Amino acid sequence: MNHILQIGLIGAGRIARVHARTIAYRVASAELAAVADPVPAAAQALAETYRIGRIAPDYQSILADPAIDAVLICTPTDTHADLIVAAAAAGKHIFCEKPVALSLAQTDAAVSAAECAGVTLQIGFNRRFDANFARVRRAVADGEIGTVEIVHIISRDPAPPPIAYVGPSGGIFLDMTIHDWDMARFLTGSEITEVYVQGGVMVDPAIGAAGDIDTHVTLLRFASGAIGSIDNSRRAVYGYDQRAEVFGSKGVIQTQNNYPNSAVISTRESVRRDLPLNFFMDRYVEAFAAEIESFAAAVATGQPVAVTGHDARAALVVALAAKRSYAEGRPVAISEIC
Ligand SMILES: NC(=O)c1ccc[n+]([C@@H]2O[C@H](COP(=O)([O-])OP(=O)(O)OC[C@H]3O[C@@H](n4cnc5c(N)ncnc54)[C@H](O)[C@@H]3O)[C@@H](O)[C@H]2O)c1
User: Fold this and answer.
1) Atom of ligand 1 at shortest range from CA of 83
2) How confident is the model over 210-264, as pLDDT tens digits?
């Protein structure tokens, strides 16, 4: 029988719960052997609900456990880089939630620590594993729509996060749009070379008071010559809005949202259906399972991971360029940042 990857879960918050449920019910190649969180009740709740082997007093205890092959870092963003460095020093393979860090220096230190230690490092850009976006990528890679000319990514959350989350997360460009910078690179297979942000606070003044914005449209230019846009809002009243369109010389490919059912109600007044799946924990159930399966396979085979530290760095560079574009009200070349 193949070895089942033994994972230590670091953090027991919102995304940790998603991974714990996914690994317990949908992933055959990995198991959660331990969980650590400074809030004992959070660790206990996950351990009991999802049959996690043991509750560790802290992450150091997970790193010291020879029975654990890998860690799954689900802590706040500003802790990721140090945890990657510590896990690499302990010889553990690492799956880390996005983004790796809020600065390029910390990202580089973390990525090179994993490389020097020779451990596997995969980043949690889960949307690459979504069937809709994977199909768009395949259409582009196989030339089904010809040369890519225009890309549109719509990515709107149903509601903003708690205000306390906003600051430490790095704000909309580093926390939320980070998925979309990665998606733009992934779908086109080309690097972003310039960004120009138009945005503002349209949802909640408290987000503005925390130093962030909640709505933006960003124009993109790619090394391939293509152009594109990313449209983000922290509040889509109809649910999680996650769509993409890639237009090329031979045609166009578009994706729609995912729904809890396919029923359509037609009456004398209207034709209507239920709202899309509400947020990432529902919409990306299969993608979260596929990314952990892919990580376990990379560890088992020694093959490269699907989402690398380089991908994390590339998305962060674009995020920092977007921050500057918004602050200075002008297009910013990526070469100004790195
Ligand atoms: N891929 C996705 O779609 C996705 C979705 C949500 C969050 N995230 C990312 O996941 C990370 C966590 O976000 P969240 O929403 O789950 O936050 P959260 O605040 O709900 O949970 C974080 C947990 O980490 C714990 N923690 C803090 N320091 C720790 C340490 N040293 N050791 C162990 N546990 C520690 C906290 O007590 C808390 O329970 C962020 O980096 C975020 O960007 C990714």
Assistant:
1) 31
2) 999 999 999 999 999 999 999 999 999 999 999 999 999 999 999 999 999 999 9
Residue written as token pair 């879960």: 9
Tell how strand 271-272 and strand 265-266 pair up: antiparallel
Which residue's CA is minimally distant from atom 19 of ligand 1?
A: 13
Q: Is the CATH number of domain 5-119 3.40.50.720?
A: yes
Cα-trace Rg, the chain: 20
Chain segment 3-33, per-residue pLDDT in tens = 999 999 999 999 999 999 999 999 999 999 9
Q: What angle do CA 32, 76, 235 make, to 5 degrees?
A: 105
Separation of alpha carbons 182 and 319, rounded Å: 10
How far, in Å, is the centroid of ligand 1 from the Cα of 17? 10
Say which CATH superfamily domain 130-278+315-336 falls into: Dihydrodipicolinate Reductase; domain 2 (3.30.360.10)
Q: How far is the CA of 318 from the centre of ligand 1 (A)?
A: 23
Domain with CATH 3.40.50.720 in the chain: 5-119
Residues in the chain: 338
Q: Is the peptide bond before 168 cis (omega within 30 degrees of 0)?
A: no
Question: What is the pLDDT, as a whole number, of residue 337?
Answer: 97
- Pocket test of ligand 1: the residue of 39, 62, 95, 97 to mutate, having most ligand atoms within 8 Å of its CB, is 97
Give pTM, 2 decimals. Answer: 0.97
Query: Rounded to the nearest whole angstrom, what is the distance from the C-alpha of residue 37 to the centroid of ligand 1?
Result: 10
